[in-house]
């Protein structure tokens, strides 16, 4: 079943309250791992598309996530910059 019950509750809450159940913002919280291919494809397709040379990705966060994003940047030929604290 995965996140189906949680997703249902958050959708109903958003419709009733007009805001996200977790953040109280109008934008929806997305549960689970990001769909990096979809996100990266949006950057290089459509009417506001960028070329790979125009995209710089700046990252600060967990190593595992950084590795995943770095791999996608390599695939899409985006520039990847990382800062560690």
TrEMBL record:
GO terms for molecular function: oxidoreductase activity. InterPro entries: Fe_red_NAD-bd_6, FNR_nucleotide-bd. Residues 15-73 form the Ferric reductase NAD binding domain. The keyword Ribosomal protein does not apply. It comes from the Eukaryota. Keywords: Oxidoreductase. This is Ferric reductase NAD binding domain-containing protein. It comes from Adineta steineri.
